[in-house]
Amino acid sequence: MSTLRLEIVTPERKVFDKDVNMVVVKGVGGDLGILPHHVPLVTPLKVAPVKAKIGNAEEFIAVHGGFMEVRKDKVVILAESAELGSDIDVIRAEQAKERAQHRLNEKQSEIDHKRAEAALQRALTRIQVGGH
Amino acid sequence: MAKGMREIKRQIKSTQNMKQITKAMELVAAANLKRAQTAAEAGRPYSDKLKEVVSSIASGGGGVKHPMLQTREIKRTAYLIITSDRGLAGGLNSALLKRFVDTLKSKHKSNNEFDLFVIGRKGRDYLKRRDYPIKQEEIGVPDSPKFAHIKSLASAAVTGFEDGTYDEIYLVYNRFVNALSQIPTVKQLLPLDASALEGASQGPKADYEYEPSAEEVLNVLLPKYAETLVYSALLENKASEFGSRMTAMSSATKNATKRIDELTLTYNRARQAAITQEISEIVGGANALV
Q: Structure pTM?
């Protein structure tokens, strides 16, 4: 089975760097599955888990926004922050989720609402990734 | 005489204490410098990649226009000044701030023409004392800063450019050359220099497809790219701070050593003089008895 290289880079470090068989991401235009020899592509990403398939195994990485660059045999994801499942504190994420939901239920200005929504999305992504 | 000697002894002791401190600070700064340099290198792949993609879109023709790539008439300017929180780093901050204030005075007639975004306690205190308009400040940034620490400040400045509050943004920081030399730099952050970007893309140029469109991608990428530039300037300023502190403390230690040597010499002379005097007093007394 042919592979492609998946790199996930943040301003602080390289989070992920492995050969994988398939990458599944959530782009701003919808879900994308990338197989080797994909046409070169650039797209911004949503805050969502990135799934990497290696053989029969699957790995999940929480990617908070950023964008993806696809080349023939390489996928680079640039994000302001990204975490592997093993680095995530699920309990903290659960707490963050509850806080965000609580704030969403209150009446408030538009900016606060947006901020709470973003926080909720981040917490959900973390929980999803951390739970695997 | 004995009293003078005690005085000198005290001075030697206090200089020795000072030397211990400067020596320790030098070692700590050296260790931090190494860490800061590693951090600056770790961030390079990210900014290089961003630059590559941005330049391949910008130079890809297709008439992609974006406000961040275009110069417009300058009515209001924002400055992002990066200084350190702590002093004892030689002339690092003062050289930078002096350079910056000179630039301000030569470019602007009144304080209403610009806003300042300040990182670091030293710069904040200096500029506040001189009544410059500080829009936002960020102090207490740790020695190994994370992107999150400056995100709000950087995006506030970049958003200001996007919505037209500012027509240009400058970045003021110390460029790190090596441990011995740091250059105070005033660099234009926005609008991005499209010609510099085009020169940056080398190697095989991939013909990308953009999802949903080149403009949309650029809309997301350019603000990120600008923020990344701020972050790497912060990392570089940190490295400069430690480099400068290391050199300053090393010369302070050297001075202390020299001062201790001088004082020891003076002390020994005084001691000898006291003994000689005592002997001549005894001899004089004995002679008088005979």
A: 0.81
Q: How many domains does chain B have?
A: 1
Which tokens hold the place of B34? 């190494």
Cα–Cα dist B179/B79, whole Å? 26
CB–CB of B147 and A71 under 8 A? no
Q: What is the CATH number of the domain that holds B123?
A: 3.40.1380.10
Q: Do A81 and B216 touch (CB under 8 A)?
A: no
Q: What is the DSSP letter of A38?
A: P
Amino acid making up residue A93? A
Task: Round to whole Å and give the CA distance between A10 and B91.
Answer: 33
Is residue B238 situated within a structural domain? yes
- Is B78 domain-assigned? yes
Which pair of structure tokens corresponds to residue A61?
């990485």
Taking 3-state DSSP, the helix, strand and coil percentages for chain B, each rounded to the nearest 5, stand at: 65, 15, 20
A117 at interface of B, judged by CB pairs closer than 8 A: no
Residue B118 resides in a domain: yes
ipTM of this complex:
0.73
pLDDT digits (tens, 9 = 90+) for A70-114: 988 889 999 888 888 777 888 888 888 888 888 888 766 776 777
Chain A 45-74, residues with CB within 8 Å of chain B CB atoms:
66-67, 69, 71
Closest Cα in chain A, distance from residue B50 (Å) = 8
Domain assignment present for residue B276? The answer is: no
3-class secondary structure, A101: helix
Closest CA to A7 of A40, A54, A52: A52
Cβ-defined contact of A41 to B151 (cutoff 8 Å): no
Judged by CB atoms closer than 8 Å, whether chains meet at B206 and A27 is answered as no
Domain hosting residue B102, numbered range: 27-247
- CA of A46 to nearest chain B CA: how many angstroms apart? 11
Cα separation, B84 vs B245, whole angstroms: 11
Average pLDDT over residues A120-128: 83
* CB-based contact A14 B220, cutoff 8 Å: no
